[in-house]
Amino acid sequence: MLERISRFLKKNLKSKPDATHYIFGPSEHSLTPAMINRNARSIVDVLQKAGFEAYVVGGCVRDLLLDLEPKDFDVATSARPWEVKSLFRRSRIIGRRFQIVHVQFGREIIEVTTFRSNDEESSNKNHRQQTDSGMLTRDNVFGSVIEDASRRDLTVNALYYDPSDNTIHDFTHGLDDIDDSIIRIIGDPATRFREDPVRMLRVARFAAKLGFQIESATATPMRHRAADLRQISAPRLFDETLKLFMTGNAVATFQLLLEHKLFDYIVPQLAPMLNDQNGIPLKLITQAFTNTDIRIQSDQRVAPAFIYAALLWPVVQKLAKTYEKNGNSPPYALSKAAGEVTARQIEVTAIPKRFTIPMREIWDLQQHMLRRGGNRVQRLMEHPRFRAAYDFVLLREQSGENLDGLGAWWTAYQSADEQSQEKMAEETSATSGNYKRSRRRRNSKRQTTDSE
Ligand code: ATP
Ligand code: MG
């Protein structure tokens, strides 16, 4: 925005001749120092008084400019980690891949990061490591603020705010992109995605969160580089999936992941089942994410176990059906399918045991909830996963699965008085889907454990 540029400084840098340093003064943006977290402001102040450059940076500047509430406030500085540490009594250096300093104020922790460079020429074996395919594994080459801006992922994430004089420092036209609602990767998109394929997921996540358009030069290579996501470690990819699906914009993010062919590398077993636009799997996942977004908006808890239960259910159900056709009992078929599908998924996204266990309980209860007779019903309701399993039944029905009024039955049962509950249980006892207990059941007991 030309009218906004009052001061225009061009710094000729050896390594980045095209990097331009724009400084936007107080009248040219909507931020004020009072919007910045007090502790972050005080860190910047201490660092600047000690002679270092320091800014508030990243997501919080972006969010404040867009009237959103920042999740946290990060500080970037020319001071080295040990210099930062020496200035703040309650601070410690953490991380190996990226060394950062955590400065503690009461219960709050502010992250202070030293300016880093992504520059090939200054790379040094000890500080920066890359795999043969170009992926960064270690990244601790310190640099100038301009170099720090160019190694960040998106232009809208690379704005530096100086609360001491209320200026925004922009090296990548990030402020223009915020004004124009554009998500743009910094530098050559294909190279940046090769360096760190997770950036493709970040593009989708921020485009969804902010409602921005992905600029075409950023979008084009995503499809071709999507398979690079296979190189991402399963624990990191699991963490990323939580950010994709549990931060209130799951539906929009999911649509972008499908559009840009990224979803295939997140839940590979499910992806082919989503091609049918009218199929139940696509409806189930979209509905699960719609419900998740609504819950987050109303400050309700969302559980990773429930989300993964939905993501893998169509796959588990399909596989269980084939095992049933081969003569296995429904409980055994389900348990075997669940074990196999879970094992394959955790190779991609390392879902921790504390989530796979409740996830499998939700699936398991789907069968138990079909059988509503006798005193089983009361016992089921006392199961710690009953509520989630009941919600899951409702979700399946919402997405078009015909469960013969199962959800409505459980809804009515829960609100009925004791006498009516007994009557309901008696009535359904004779009719509800009791499977035959046969030799197969003994089989299932013996074999279910090996599919864990
Ligand atoms: P959020 O609101 O989700 O915290 P954020 O922009 O602060 O958004 P973080 O994941 O906290 O995102 O990362 C902080 C900053 O670090 C980002 O703004 C971005 O500049 C930079 N960054 C994070 N991940 C990457 C990456 N994979 N590649 C390059 N830069 C990154
Ligand atoms: Mg952040």
Q: How would you characterize the overall build of this protein?
A:
- The protein has 452 residues and is of the alpha+beta class.
- The chain has two domains: 2-180, Beta Polymerase, domain 2; 273-451, cca-adding enzyme, domain 2.
- The protein contains 19 helices and 13 strands.
- The chain has helices spanning 38-49, 59-65, 81-87, 145-150, 174-180, 189-195, 198-210, 216-225, 234-245, 250-259, 280-297, 304-325, 330-346, 353-368, 376-382, 386-398, 406-415, 418-431, 439-447, and strands at residues 7-9, 21-24, 54-57, 74-77, 91-94, 100-105, 108-114, 128-130, 136-139, 159-162, 167-170, 182-183, 213-214.
- Strands 1-2-11-10-3-4-7-6-5 form a nine-stranded mixed sheet.
- Strand 8 and strand 9 form a beta hairpin.
- Helix 7 runs parallel beside helix 9, helix 11 (280-297) packs antiparallel against helix 12 and helix 13 (330-346) runs antiparallel to helix 14 (353-368).
- The N and C termini lie far apart (58 Å).
- Mean pLDDT is 87; it is low at 1-17, 120-126 and 433-452.
- The structure holds adenosine-5'-triphosphate and magnesium ion.
- Adenosine-5'-triphosphate binds next to helix 7.
Write the SSE topology.
Layout: E1 7-9, E2 21-24, H1 38-49, E3 54-57, H2 59-65, E4 74-77, H3 81-87, E5 91-94, E6 100-105, E7 108-114, E8 128-130, E9 136-139, H4 145-150, E10 159-162, E11 167-170, H5 174-180, E12 182-183, H6 189-195, H7 198-210, E13 213-214, H8 216-225, H9 234-245, H10 250-259, H11 280-297, H12 304-325, H13 330-346, H14 353-368, H15 376-382, H16 386-398, H17 406-415, H18 418-431, H19 439-447
Parallel strand pairs: 4-7, 12-13
Antiparallel strand pairs: 1-2, 2-11, 3-4, 3-10, 5-6, 6-7, 8-9, 10-11
Bound molecules: adenosine-5'-triphosphate and magnesium ion.
